[in-house]
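Anyone able to model this chain together with MTE?
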Amino acid sequence: MLIKRRKGWELPESAAAPEPVFLNRRQLIKAMGAGTLSLATASLAPTVEAATSDGAEDPSAHLYPVERNPRYTVERAITEERLATTYNNFYEFGSHKKISEEAQALEIRPWEITIDGLVEEPFTIGIDELLAKMPLEERVYRHRCVEAWSITVPYSGFPMTALLDLARPLGDAKYLEMRTFHDPDIAPGQRQFWYPWPYVEGLTIEEAANELAFLATGYYGKPIPKQNGSPLRLAVPWKYGFKHVKSIMRFTFTEERPETFWSVVDGGEYGFWANINPEVPHRRWSQAEERVLGEDRKVATKLYNGYAEFVAHLYADLPESEALFK
Ligand code: MTE
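re: yes, here you go
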């Protein structure tokens, strides 16, 4: 009997999640005014909307929704938007999961992004100008936190390769360092001096150039909410969630491996590679299974979160002990 082995990320017809209903804020208000939207539907709107700190609508709202790229499908249902936008890790706003209200203090305009280090010409660009230059698409990715919970979410944004084309790194650039804002006046977590703020993460250039590496600017067909890393956050679905640095302000190309936030906090705990591996337990958690947010069940965790076809070759020459958890 011929058994078709499905790749980890392929979507079996039977498991296809319903398309999420994309209603941006303007559409929602219009629909309510026209009396075409019932209260039951209105309650599907996220609890915290993407808005600037003065309450105005995010100026990028008109860009979304964008077309979904069918290449990156998954075999799980999409997590309810309300959960993915209210159960968050964003230590700048607190070391618990309920930071979505606090994160609204983040000022997302103006938002300047600096690209520097080993590039032909360093430059700074505003987020809206950057968005106008980038090829926007939607990708449904699985996201697995090192704390053993997982979600499946539709990001909108652009492939990291598009940013690399714009940045024009030099031949001796080996790593890409990504850095969050630093403003203790609005982010109370950043007053905790024992953390090495600002939050920094890094990838090798080969990882950054991998087709899966994505910069998310939208979520569920709208601008990405502040608590999820507005206006620009990393998505590298084969790596644990802490690599997915939020609210990026600076991309620096370097020859040396960057010192990342968690590896400075505790080098023995969180390493640079952070590739998802069910066989290497964390000191505090087994990584064999994950709790699917919003569902009353645990599922087996897959090597590289099920994305091995795309990324396993990146680590072929590394000793296993180095690549698979550190
Ligand atoms: N980025 C910043 N700047 N600060 C953080 O505390 N937490 C990380 C990552 N990016 C974090 C961050 C962790 S541990 C996870 S699991 C994801 O963000 C959570 O992303 P989500 O809240 O959008 O699900």
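The first helix runs from residue 25 to 33.
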